[in-house]
Amino acid sequence: MTDVSVKELSSELQAAIEQLKSEQGLEQVGIVTRIGDGVAWVYGLTSAGFNEVITIEGTDGSTVEAFALNLMEDEIGAVLLGDDSRVSAGARAKLTGSVVEVPVGPELLGRVVDPLGRPLDGGGAIKAKLRNPIERSAPGVMDRKSVHEPMMTGIMAIDTMIPIGRGQRELIIGDRQTGKTAITIDTMINQARQKTGVINIYVAVGQKLSKIARLVERLKREGVMEQSIVIATSPADPASLLYLAPYAGTAMGEYFRDNKQHALIIYDDLTKHAVAYRQMSLLLRRPPGREAFPGDVFYLHSRLLERSAKLSDNLGAGSLTALPIIETQAGDISAYIPTNVISITDGQIFLETNLFYQGIRPAISVGLSVSRVGGSAQTKAVKSVSGSLRLDLAQFRELAAFTQFSTNLDADTKKRINRGQRLTELLKQPQYSPLSVWEQTATLIAATEGVFDEVPMDKIKPAQHALLTQLEAEHKAKMTELNKGDKPADTTKELILKEAKKIAKGYSA
Amino acid sequence: MHKVSRRRLASTVVELLRQNPKDRQHIIQTLAAYLIVHKQQKRMDLLLLDIASELARVDAHLYAEVTSAFPLDKAARDELTAYLRRATDVTTVELDEHVEPELLAGAVVRTASQELDTSARTKLNRLRSLNVNAVEETLGE
């Protein structure tokens, strides 16, 4: 028996409520002492937390939001999320008691939003039931599982040689205009074509608005937009929004990851993100380090990418796969930001300008690209036929370089070069046309068995196209079976070889 | 010369004033000299706020600036003092009253680090921004 009197409890509770009510009106306030370049220095607000949102009274009676990044003895440095021309020195700043949050949930699908979750597509208010903080800690060791399911990009060169798994972080790195974004768009389109159910999140960090508009238009046309979220920031936005965009996108992706679904997030690109953070840090007077980036620029990206993970079965086995993009200058992958992100991610796809202008598109440099964990996630069908592909291509490149000026070649060398040229040709793929598992498998079975060796170079792509059309028309059931991803049966292999030989004969000189 | 942070300066001043209340004049002169030498005269208002919050912390003495639309009567003053005592846990409250008809109604109470805004002007401003959002949302649907 406890001796609690309900009457006493009731009156105490009443008093507590009264007390709370009376305290509700008193708010922590500070005064803006300096303002400029999107950074406000605020006197007071001594109880502000790191990353806490503060509201500053604007000159026209409206409020401007900011978040606290520098907490010092006498003042705090806050980065404005809006226009700094509406704030003047002497303005009052108030604590909101919360960190930056964004709406999350399925209500965001099909929408174009800014990093604070406000719609940019003119499609009305987003009535999300949930809001999550944009900064969250990554899942721990026991919350994870090793990457084991494929994330098919539909790009044969990637799916066969640099396979990506769900929950992996695979960097896409290359100079400007080498097709980095194109790879990610194809991957998004492939999720819709193959009906994988993977949610796409595209984070545009300081991208031209015309480019984003074109992307959204293309996604709509391909029917991908219904399963996608686009977070858009342009070069005209304040650096704070560019800085927040990847974190906001990740928070939206985590909702799907934590709810037993699979999501794919594309950060386009993290170079601009680092530059935006450098701008903020320098304006906040943090000491500059290498290339004037602040000391914590590694942590900036590591804490972001660590949130992409494959969750354990206990947590629903959802996943968040990340495809960060880094733009290099003149192919220099040993610059500060590229080396940082290469070391954080589970592999990289390196795109080369030379290859791009040679017409090898996607311009993937097979030698410099790796996937550290994707091998165990590769589809069995593709894996069973792509084993020697990487090696064959590597040998081909070596021989091709070595024999460039030589005319007398032995039969074996000639054969290897011949095969290599044809494989390179087959791995070329136009944009917006991702290939399904069976298409990749069938092409590879024919190519690695040397069926196309006699087909002239300019007829390789038409021959491949004819083979795939023929297989789809005549053996649809077998191909649907193959598309499930299991290792192809010997009969299927024989069937593909038979059809391929017939077609190759027609195209041979 | 070593520059001292404003908060440390405020806490030192309060400490000295508490220890030697008779030396008040001398302490203030020294502080003024310090501010002039360090070219911090413009920061005087912030320093005063720091001193006020330090006084509230160590002396349980609260300085509050009250701006109201109409002059306060005794009942309102007593109620406000009682409220501030309760809400901020101090024993003495010093009210600095001003009248500002632009507030329309209600009052704004400002202490060194906190604010209680019950003015009609702020409420109308808030209502205006809420209204704008609501209209935008309705139009968007």
What does this structure look like?
The complex is a heterodimer of chains A (509) and B (141). Chain A is of the alpha/beta class. Chain A is built from 16 helices and 16 strands. Chain A has an eight-stranded mixed beta sheet, sandwiched between helices. In chain A, strands 1-2-5-4-3-6 form a six-stranded antiparallel beta barrel. Chain A has a two-stranded antiparallel ribbon with strand order 7-9. In chain A, a hairpin with a 3-residue loop joins β4 and β5. In chain A, α10 runs parallel beside α13, α13 crosses α15 and α14 crosses α16. The mean pLDDT of chain A is 92. Chain B has 141 residues and is of the alpha+beta class. Chain B is built from five helices and four strands. In chain B, strands 2-1-3-4 form a four-stranded mixed beta sheet. In chain B, a hairpin with a 3-residue loop joins β3 and β4. Chain B is extended and about 60 Å long. Chain B starts with 5 loop residues before the first helix and ends with a helix. Classes of the chains: A alpha/beta (509), B alpha+beta (141). The interface between A and B is medium-sized, with 27 and 25 residues. β1 of chain A pairs antiparallel with β4 of chain B, so a sheet runs across the interface.
